[in-house]
Amino acid sequence: MTPVDQNFFAYLHHRLVERADDELLATSDGTSFTYGDIDRMSARIAACLRDAGVDVGDRVSVQAEKSPQSLCLYLACLRAGFVFHPINPAYKSNELETLLRHAEPSAVVCDPCNERAVAALAAAAGARVVLTLGADGCGSLIDRAAGASERFATVRRSSDDPAALLYTSGTTGSPKGILLSHGNLQSNAEALTSAWGFTARDRLLHALPIHHVHGLFISLGCVLSSGASMTWLPRFTVDDVLGHLPGCTVMMGVPTYYTRLLAASEFSADLVRGVRLFVSGSAPLLPETFAEFERRTGQRILERYGMTETNVIASNPLHGNRKPGTVGLPLPGVDVRIVDDHGTALAVGEVGHIEVRGPNVFKGYWRRDAAGDFTADGFFKTGDLGVIDDDGYLSIVGRGKDLVITGGLNVYPRDVETVIDELPGVVESAVIGVPHPDFGEGVVAVVVRERGSVSSEAEIIAACKARLADYKVPKRIVFADELPRNVMGKVQKNVLREAHARLFVEA
């Protein structure tokens, strides 16, 4: 008996065929692409790469700007059984070299402007072919694909076969490549499409990058599996989003997107009256942002929780209470538990390590043993700290590596950040631990003040002393114009720790 094809593209393809004449996406300048256009273009790209010598299971590394053609390249890799490896377009040559050497791709696709430099790095990594794709959708990949057939038989894959390779830490430290399978992508697409009520009547405002799980798998999985459409923006800008939101029913973004919209006087309830759902992820959403957004628009942002190794783990409900400061309930089929340092399950309300198990969880790392990252009963150790309340809602306290141990006592950064962020004149804060001669680590808060605020270090420390145990109170407050963030809006606490590593040594 022939095994059932479990290629994720085979799951999506029926929508591409069924809605061939319907619009899948329109770019910011109004250029429209139907489901059929995307299907045919992805078939030609798949044939082009296959004819260039890329084999089933080979990695295809892509450092290209967001475009409809780059979406087709992703789908082409799925249908041909290649492993899609997206790379942040902002990465420089040394960062790119590290990733290519580790991924060992058969093919590399890059911006035409970078072709010469990338070609040398690709050759050193053993790549057989280098093709180009620009932000305008042009390049040697598209030129070569133009002559290929529009008919391409989807390559049979099992649910455990790798579909994508992503690196979580960029190029800091030892490369850590995460292999996501066809089954991982399909299970999450099915779960989220149902959980968030996606239908063919929806139109997503897509302003996220597509070298990351959020914009690539979460957003696209919901759209393609439901037959919905998209407004396809090259990047997030307040003006573009304000201009296109009235024509959309769903927006997905990171917290920074929402704070920037709230800073725009034009952003109002009337502007978004046609939007049924706002989703936030990739970084914690401040309760203050949640509350202000509801006050301005009458809508409650739906916050969810996920990571590269797992896609989405938990989500606040579409219908029901969306609790600010929480990431909601585990998705159907996903098990979440909180354990102590010894792996013993903790009671409701106790802070501990988050572990997760389900069809969304990756099988392992590329060329790295992941045995230590899983428990004997198959739970993945996320590295995050969290707590589950009486209603089953999960809250993220912080990353395990961000835990501050001062004088032998544990300080969860979120506890301190919540107090500081509520103070007048404070925009946001990030709490870190840095070497301290007496306590091992000293608690330090990096604070961004509102323009014109005169809040002082002494005032903030005094306010913390009034609401926190002494050992949690920051020993120093450092002011900054802004907090360093990665492309998905997550505060880079490693950057802050490095910048202030000698704060107490030099005091």
Question: Describe it for me?
Answer:
- The chain is of the alpha/beta class and 507 residues long.
- It folds into three domains: 8-190, ANL, N-terminal domain (Rossmann fold); 236-400, ANL, N-terminal domain (Rossmann fold, 3-Layer(aba) Sandwich); 403-499, ANL, C-terminal domain (GMP Synthetase, Chain A, domain 3), CATH 3.30.300.
- It contains 14 helices and 25 strands.
- The chain has helices at 8-18, 35-51, 68-80, 93-103, 115-124, 140-145, 182-195, 213-226, 238-244, 255-262, 287-297, 413-421, 457-467, 493-499, and strands at 23-27, 32-34, 59-63, 83-86, 107-110, 129-132, 162-167, 177-181, 203-206, 229-232, 250-253, 277-280, 302-307, 311-315, 329-330, 335-339, 352-357, 364-365, 380-388, 394-399, 404-406, 409-411, 426-436, 440-449, 476-479.
- The strands form six sheets. The protein has a nine-stranded mixed sheet with strand order 2-1-10-9-11-12-13-14-15. Strands 4-3-5-6 form a four-stranded parallel sheet, with helices on both faces.
- Helix 7 (182-195) crosses helix 8 and helix 10 crosses helix 11.
- The mean pLDDT is 93.
